Amino acid sequence: MELEKEFIQMSKQNLHEMDSIKVEDKNYAKKNALEKELWDGERIDYQKKIKQLNRKIEELTDDLRLLEEQNIELKSDKNRLTLQVEEMRSAFRNKLTKYMNENNPDSSATTWKAKEELIRSYTEKEVELSQRLDKESKRIDEKYKQLRALKNYARSLKYLAEDWAPIGQPLPEVLTLPPPVILDDEDDNEFVKQQQSEIDRLKLKNRNLEDEVRKAGDTSAKMKHLPASHESGGAMQAQILRELEFLKGNPDVLKKPGTASIEVEKLRKERDNLYK
Questions:
Q1: pLDDT tens digits, residue range 25-63?
Q2: Separation of alpha carbons 113 and 120, rounded Å
Q3: Closest residue by Cα to residue 124 from 250, 241, 208, 209
Q4: Total structural domains in the chain?
Q5: Which of 12, 104, 188, 223 allows an S-S link to 111, with CB 3.0 to 4.6 Å?
Q6: Which uninterrupted H or E stretch holds 107?
Q7: In a domain? residue 10
Q8: What's the half-sphere exposure (Cβ side, CA atoms, 13 Å) at 127?
């Protein structure tokens, strides 16, 4: 009987200890589950932050690359235009001085007036084209800003769609296709066509005027020893003055909107080639 009582008592004690161990195991399992959930939440938060930082780095890298390209392009255009302006000034002044010395040794008042009018006309045209170039540069900068804003907006929408996309499923096609880069420039093309037509007309008029000036110079050189040479030179100078007055009377030439910087460069090159 005593052995049975001891056995029963030991069994009860073992059962009580087993129940205590089970309770401790359950509490420990709950604690581990809570800690695991907490660590998983922090890990997900850190992953999101890392993803956001990587996206921000990518955006800033793209913006920095775009700004560097714009800076290099603007510096190149500035140096090229400055060199062209200096070359144009030097070429025209040298040729005018040479022409005046060869064909008009007396340096009459009419000759010098024509020279000053021609230089002033080219100076005014240079100022006008410089102002138009500044306007075009500002317009291009605004377009770059708008394009950059649209790019950032599209990137934000893409990131939002990726974050909300179901896990484990392929992304929609709109998120995998490359972004469109071609914008509708139909209006700009129309302005370019109109401006190209106007520039072609001015090129032809410029060639005709240069031919007339060269012919008049040759005629004046051949007839400088004849009595009528002074009258011929006066007629030639009067013709040059009439052409200058015509150009001054048309201030609206090349004032149409559009992308004019490239065409202005072509026109300057064409004019420089005529004097070579």
A1: 888 888 888 888 888 888 888 888 888 888 888 888 888
A2: 10
A3: 250
A4: 1
A5: 104
A6: none
A7: yes
A8: 6
- C-alpha 193/C-alpha 259 separation (Å) is 10
What the block records as the tokens of 31 is: 């604690």
Span 221-251, pLDDT tens digits: 565 555 444 445 556 566 666 655 555 555 4
Asked whether residue 178 is domain-assigned, the answer is: no
Amino acid at 124: E
Separation between Cα atoms, residue 248 and residue 199, nearest integer Å: 17
CB 148 within 8 A of CB 63: yes
Quote the CA–CA distance of 249 and 234 in Å, as a whole number.
22
Residue 181 forms part of a structural domain: no
Q: Can you give the pLDDT at residue 53?
A: 80
Q: In the structure encoding, which two tokens stand for residue 87, read together? A: 């070359």
Q: What predicted TM-score, i.e. pTM, was given to this entire model?
A: 0.31
- Residue 124 falls within a domain, yes or no? yes
Q: What integer pLDDT is reported at residue 198 of this predicted model?
A: 67
Query: Which amino acid appears at position 39 of this protein?
Result: W
Q: How far apart are CA 19 and CA 12, in angstroms?
A: 11
Provide the pLDDT for residue 180. Answer: 61
